[in-house]
Amino acid sequence: MPAANALSPILDPLALAGQLSGKLLIDGALTPAVSGKTFPVINPATGKKFAEAALGEKSDVAAAVSAAARAQPAWARIPARQRGKLIADCGRLLNEHVEELGRLVALETGKALRTESRVEASVLADVFVFYAGLGSELKGESVPFNPDMLTVTVREPIGVVGAIIPWNVPMMLMALKIAPALVAGNSVVVKSAEEAPLAVLRACQIMNQILPPGVLNILSGFGPECGAPLVADPRVGKVSFTGSVETGKIVYKTAADKLIPVTLELGGKSPMIVMADADVDRAVAGAIVGMRFTRQGQSCTAASRMFVHEKIHDEFVVKLRAKVDAMKMGDPLDETTDIGAIISRPQYEKVTSYIKIGRETPGAVAHECTAMPTDPDLKDGLFIRPVIFAGLTNQSRVAREEIFGPVACVIKWRDYEEVIAAANDSVYGLAATVWTRDLRMALDATRRLQAGFVQVNQNLVVQPGLSYGGVKQSGLGKEASHEAMLDHFTQKKTIILNMT
Ligand code: NAI
Ligand code: MG
Question: What pairing do the DSSP bridges indicate for beta strands 160-164 and 236-242?
């Protein structure tokens, strides 16, 4: 670990943002875009610009991919456990920067520091340390093909990986891609989300103190001008994408033309089924976590369809509302804040339009929670009061479409067969939870729910070691696990040594 030029944590996020303004990270160095152009980075809590990000375009993509392609062969020749050790060092170094990374991501995303942003920064190391230990597990097989021939399969890196990430948990979602890709011997070019380009850039700068130049590069810029050329670059052999279904399909089509593999982590409308015998308080606590109220509901896994049995429905709604009401919405950097701001104006418009649609739906009851912040500095901030809808059916738009905001639907049910059918009546299939004391019913539901991740009586978020990824339009492939590294960041080669 280089001590002499080690980066010191910068706890003032404005000062740190100033240092990173207008920069990409290519071949180990911070550099402006070829065009010299930038775009504004906005604080969603105030609506004010606080920094500029470099506007990466095709020529920047070409430079980053060139650097990655140059660096990759030597990186792949480092023994796998040694690569793993370097990735573990990255994790440890990131851990020394938790506070600054948390503050910077809070400033650019509007996610509250205490409940979300610091938590995101503090779990990064876990992902790196998990994958670091898997260097020696990039194993192939020996095959009893012919006694006179040594026949083996080996796992080789793919080459240059393109990683396209969203803004909601930018550092964590980046970590889930770059840690396994790097341990497996690939080099990586990341394209950050236009709304949150700085904390991920800082994280890559920190890791570049340890990694050889060119192994990990990061670009900021817009989707069509910077993301699309990264996917299309002929030297990129794999793309791992997290974001919307719509953009995921565009990425998949471009990748199909090149016949390269993709991992797609897309949206969701995850059901939570609460049975009549469930522990209501526990289910309500699970709904708070599941719906990610502290992240303004901006989660692909948000438990946004809560199917609650009619016997406990009213109690559930009252208790859920009381808990959300008790949360404080305000300045993301204030330690007392539970709920921050919505990421961007378009996202704000999208969420408020769904709230309007819900309110206008016959039978709907909208429970609006928490108070708006009163601080005058926040008067232009993108704050939305969380809404819990009761009285909607699974057929309503609010219950069917991904809102990606603090809008929950509580849907009353009576018949078990009908609720399973309703839960599965969705184009999505990312996650689901079941709440009951009856383990036989729980097992039955887990088997019948169409989702990539089903939990009973809990609502854990992504865990290193557990495969995570959706079915149906929620995506393709898995992340976070050992298999995810083998299946998505290596390719198998069969080798026969004829000794006759
Ligand atoms: P998006 O899918 O457009 O953006 C995600 C990433 O893809 C960003 O880095 C973006 O620059 C990039 N991108 C956009 N167009 C591209 C293209 N043609 N080629 C390559 N890369 C491209 O998502 P956006 O616009 O931020 O949000 C829209 C909706 O998507 C949200 O309302 C939400 O429903 C969903 N979403 C889901 C996420 C998830 O975690 N699964 C994360 C973010 C958004
Ligand atoms: Mg978009």
Answer: parallel
Quick check: CB of 265 below 6 Å from ligand 1? yes
What CATH superfamily is the domain 271-463? Aldehyde Dehydrogenase; Chain A, domain 2 (3.40.309.10)
pLDDT at 5: 61
Residue with tokens 């980075």: 41
CATH 3.30.565.10 fits 13-266+474-495, yes or no: no
The ligand minimizing its distance to the Cα of 166 is: 1
**106-129 average pLDDT score:** 98
**Cβ of 191 less than 6 Å from ligand 1:** yes
Burial class (CB in 10 A: 0-12, 13-18, 19+), 414: exposed
Cα separation of 77 and 318, whole Å? Answer: 60
Mean pLDDT value across residues 374-399:
97
Residue nearest to atom 43 of ligand 1 (CA): 243
Q: Model confidence over 434-463: pLDDT tens digits?
A: 999 999 999 999 999 999 999 999 999 999
| Domain ranges, ordered by start, for the chain | 13-266+474-495, 271-463
Assess whether the C-beta atom of 404 lies below 6 angstroms from ligand 1. Answer: yes
Nearest ligand, CA 248: 1
Q: How far is the CA of 248 from the centre of ligand 2 (A)?
A: 10
Each residue's pLDDT tens digit, 123-146: 999 999 999 999 999 999 999 999
Name the packing angle between helices 98-109 and 170-183 (round to 10°). Answer: 130
Using the atom order of ligand 1, give the atom closest to the CA of residue 165: 9
Give one word for 472, left, alpha or beta, with left for phi > 0 and alpha for psi -120 to 50: left
What one-character DSSP code corresponds to residue 114?
I
pLDDT digits (tens, 9 = 90+) for 463-478: 999 999 999 999 999 9
- Check: pTM over 0.85? Answer yes or no: yes
Quick one: pLDDT at residue 1?
47
Q: Is 233 in the pocket of ligand 1 (CB under 6 A)?
A: no
